[in-house]
């Protein structure tokens, strides 16, 4: 009987946690799963999908946490970084040489003149306007990063398989849109209306038209080589 | 041979006769032959060299131009590449990017001017991503210009950057369009460099050919963009080019301007829309042929020199031949005159020397023969000697009609007995000389002397129609001569002599008689005996004449003689009687 009692206890705890889990998931709405391909059906990496609430007002909006765009081996990491308006981005320098980070984008113009390796309190930039900010390095023409500043806190970036999940989107109606640095005008303005129901994940799919992007050639490294950057 | 040919050719006359005398000379023939031969060889050489040289020059030009065309295109591409490189450098300027983002037009124009100065460009433009000209150093006053080079920009949009040759405001530029990366494209930067005569003159130094860049757009009022050629030449070129299909890569054509011939190669530099911009490369054929012309002048001089020296050489050769030949000709003429003692002095180791030697041997032989003939003439009568020399001497004879004259001195035996033999011989020689002279003068031939008797022939070995008359006249003259002769004889202490003459005409056998080694030309037959018999008859007192002739002789004569019929006499061994006449001298 001892065993039976133990079994009951386990069962009760399991059921409890199950309910707790269900309850939690109800409160936090659902996930939006997105899959991005190009016109040939190949998965597109570094695409950003945003879910902008239409019927929902975002309450108790927290200040977005800081984001880091690192510089390693004369490249920005990551190439695409979606952030919410009000996010502060830090640009640490993980190389042994100096960098000169800048942007002339209208969403955010800034310049961190030639600064040495390491983390510096001054290497922080606040992105307070929505839009695309193209970040470059003045002394390394090929270095490029995109910061996609959006109003909504619900966004995600596609992985190499073209997939992403926007977690815990509260119940309600959303305009779901896609953005990619190389997205041509044909694909712009693609918006899906998605109603998020609690506990019910939504799958969205975008096909984007990517145009050719012109970049500077990467200079030769100590390891040799060079060549086209992307 | 030459002597014979002379009159033969002269007979032809006509226009040739003026030329012929020149060719009579061996010298002239040799000269003509050598000069013709040499001239032909030289002409052939010249023609061959000429053709080969011009061909080679053309091939050389063709090759040069075709290479030049590639080089020119390559240079223009390289230049475009360099310009693009410079433009890319400009576009990477951080301060410039910064200035562009300010959107302060005055500043941007000023920056563009600055960039223009940095790379010595002729124009710099900033074009927005939506194809509006934001700033243009050529027209700083225009705020938003329309783009004049849509093709070049779309090319840049497709390939990241572009280069083109475009005409703007009447000037042609080689332009480059590159994106202004910040680090994404924010605008297009366009730089332009003039395509002008100066540029082409620079190129000319490298490609060693004249260059003309032509806009083949038919609407273009001034198709010639730039040229290293004088304006008239480039205009002529343009006319020629407009007639050919320039689509073909490296089209070659010849353009004539005044006396200059330009070989032209056409290379397409750019094809945009419906028309193309071409580069025409020219080289002057004359210029390439210049060294050849020098060579040709040298050849001319050389040929003239060789011609002159060959004239001298052939004259010299001719002289070595003609001089001995004329010596020989002179010798032959001497021989012809009968001067057989003539010898030629030609010392040559060749055939001419042999000929001269043979000539001398011949003249020696002739001299010897002449000597023999002379001697023969003394031994025998000259016509017989001649007859003997003419023909091959052989035994045998022929039947001929001959008038035979016999004469002898009456009672010569008595004379010879009363005088010393030497005196008698002198007398006889005197007599025979006188009589022989008369006989020979009348064409008679002394057959033989038989002591004081003379036998003479008329009609052998050579016949004459007046043989009988000659004999009769001889007889009359002999009779007449006798009185003169007798006066001399009397002075010598002799009594005057008297002679008898018998003449008969008959067909007798004439020829060489005797043995193989010793023979006489004589006549035999009854006629001879009759003549001798008639001479004997003159001794008869009844006839009272010194000369008795036969009726046969009288018949053969012209009959204009004083004759007396003496009667018909029987002659020993002759069946028919012979009618005889006396021949008397006119009183």
Structure description:
The complex is a heterodimer of chains A (230) and B (587). With 230 residues, chain A is mainly beta. Chain A has one domain (30-208): Immunoglobulin-like (Sandwich). In chain A, 11% of the residues lie in helices and 42% in strands. With 587 residues, chain B is α+β, with helices and mostly antiparallel strands. Chain B has 4 domains: 77-191, 2-Layer Sandwich (Beta-Lactamase); 197-287, Beta-Lactamase, CATH 3.30.450; 338-378, no CATH class; 394-584, Alpha-Beta Plaits (2-Layer Sandwich), CATH 3.30.70.1230. Chain B has 16 helices and 19 strands. Chain B has helices at 2-10, 16-24, 26-91, 94-102, 105-119, 150-159, 197-207, 231-243, 285-337, 351-379, 382-390, 412-418, 421-441, 467-491, 526-537, 551-556; strands at residues 123-128, 132-136, 145-146, 162-168, 171-181, 185-194, 210-215, 224-227, 251-257, 260-272, 275-284, 396-409, 445-450, 453-458, 499-514, 519-524, 547-550, 562-569, 578-584. In chain B, the strands form 3 sheets. In chain B, strands 12, 13, 14, 15, 16, 17, 18 and 19 form an 8-stranded mixed β-sheet that branches. In chain B, strands 3-2-1-6-5-4 form a 6-stranded antiparallel β-sheet, with helices on both faces. In chain B, helix 9 (285-337) runs parallel beside helix 10 (351-379). The radius of gyration of chain B is 61 Å and the shape is rod-shaped. The chains are: A mainly beta (230), B alpha+beta (587). Chains A and B meet through strand 11 and strand 12 of A and helix 4 of B.
């Amino acid at each position: 009987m001892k065993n039976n009692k133990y079994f009951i206890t386990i069962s009760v705890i399991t059921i409890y946690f199950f309910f707790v889990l269900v309850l939690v998931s109800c409160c936090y709405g659902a996930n939006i799963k997105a899959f991005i391909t190009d016109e040939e059906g190949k998965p597109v990496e570094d695409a950003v999908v945003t879910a902008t609430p239409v019927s929902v007002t975002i309450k108790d909006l927290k200040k977005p946490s800081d984001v880091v765009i690192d510089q390693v081996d004369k490249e920005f990491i990551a190439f695409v970084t979606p952030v919410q308006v009000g996010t502060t981005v830090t640009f640490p320098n993980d190389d042994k040489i100096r960098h000169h980070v800048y942007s002339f984008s209208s969403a955010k113009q800034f310049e961190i003149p030639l600064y040495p390796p390491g983390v510096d309190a001054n290497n922080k930039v606040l992105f307070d306007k929505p839009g695309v900010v193209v970040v470059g390095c003045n002394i390394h023409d090929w270095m490029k990063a995109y910061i996609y500043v959006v109003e909504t806190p619900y966004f995600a970036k596609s992985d190499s398989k073209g997939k992403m999940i926007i977690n815990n989107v509260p119940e309600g109606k959303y305009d779901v849109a896609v953005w990619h640095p190389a997205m041509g005008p044909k694909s712009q303005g693609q918006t899906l209306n998605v109603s998020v129901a609690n506990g019910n994940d939504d799958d969205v799919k975008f096909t984007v038209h990517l145009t050719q992007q012109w970049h500077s050639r990467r200079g030769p490294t100590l390891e040799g080589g060079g060549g086209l950057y992307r | 041979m030459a002597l014979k040919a002379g009159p033969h050719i002269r007979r032809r006359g006509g226009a040739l006769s003026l030329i012929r005398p020149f060719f009579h000379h061996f010298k002239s023939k040799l000269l003509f032959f050598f000069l013709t031969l040499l001239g032909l060889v030289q002409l052939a050489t010249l023609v061959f060299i000429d053709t080969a040289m011009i061909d080679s020059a053309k091939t050389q030009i063709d090759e040069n131009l075709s290479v030049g065309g590639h080089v020119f295109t390559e240079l223009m591409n390289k230049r475009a590449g360099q310009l693009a490189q410079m433009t890319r450098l400009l576009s990477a300027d951080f301060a410039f990017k910064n200035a562009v983002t300010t959107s302060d037009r005055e500043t941007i124009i000023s920056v563009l001017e600055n960039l223009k100065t940095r790379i010595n460009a002729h124009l710099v433009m900033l074009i927005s991503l939506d194809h509006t000209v934001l700033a243009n150093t050529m027209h700083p006053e225009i705020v938003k210009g329309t783009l004049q080079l849509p093709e070049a920009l779309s090319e840049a949009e497709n390939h990241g950057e572009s280069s083109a040759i475009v005409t703007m405001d009447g000037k042609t530029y080689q332009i480059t369009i590159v994106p202004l990366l910040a680090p994404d494209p924010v605008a297009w930067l366009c730089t332009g460099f003039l395509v002008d005569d100066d540029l082409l003159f620079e190129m000319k130094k490298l490609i060693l050919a004249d260059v003309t860049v032509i806009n083949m757009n038919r609407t273009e009022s001034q198709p010639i963009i730039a040229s290293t050629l004088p304006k008239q030449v480039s205009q002529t070129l343009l006319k020629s080019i407009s007639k050919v299909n320039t689509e073909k890569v490296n089209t070659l054509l010849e353009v004539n301007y005044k006396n200059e011939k330009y070989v032209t190669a056409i290379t397409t530099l750019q094809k945009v829309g419906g028309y193309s911009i071409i580069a025409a490369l020219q080289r002057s054929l004359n210029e390439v042929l210049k060294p050849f012309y020098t060579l040709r002048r040298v050849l001319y001089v050389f040929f003239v020199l060789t011609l002159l020296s060959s004239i001298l050489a052939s004259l010299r050769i001719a002289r070595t031949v003609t001089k001995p030949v004329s010596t020989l000709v002179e010798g032959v003429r001497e021989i012809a005159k009968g001067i057989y003692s003539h010898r030629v002095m030609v010392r040559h180791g060749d055939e001419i020397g042999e000929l001269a030697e043979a000539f001398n041997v011949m003249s020696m032989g002739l001299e010897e023969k002449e000597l023999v003939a002379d001697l023969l003439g003394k031994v025998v009568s000259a016509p017989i000697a001649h007859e003997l020399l003419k023909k091959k001497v052989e035994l045998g004879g022929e039947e001929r009609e001959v008038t035979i004259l016999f004469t002898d001195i009456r009672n010569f035996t008595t004379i010879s007995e009363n005088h010393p033999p030497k005196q008698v011989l002198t007398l006889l020689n005197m007599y025979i000389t006188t009589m022989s002279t008369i006989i020979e003068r009348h064409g008679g031939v002394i057959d033989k002397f038989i002591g004081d008797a003379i036998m003479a022939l008329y009609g052998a070995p050579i016949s004459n129609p007046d043989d009988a008359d000659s004999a009769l006249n001889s007889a009359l003259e002999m009779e007449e001569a006798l009185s003169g002769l007798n006066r001399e004889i009397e002075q010598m202490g002799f009594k005057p002599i008297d002679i008898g003459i018998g003449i008969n005409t008959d067909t007798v056998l004439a020829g060489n008689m005797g043995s193989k080694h010793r023979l006489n030309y004589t006549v035999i037959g009854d006629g001879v005996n009759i003549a001798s018999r008639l001479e004997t008859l003159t001794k008869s007192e009844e006839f009272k004449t010194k000369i008795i002739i036969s009726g046969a002789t009288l018949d053969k004569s012209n009959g204009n003689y004083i004759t007396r019929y003496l009667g018909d006499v029987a002659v020993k061994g002759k069946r028919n009687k012979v009618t005889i006449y006396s021949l008397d001298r006119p009183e």
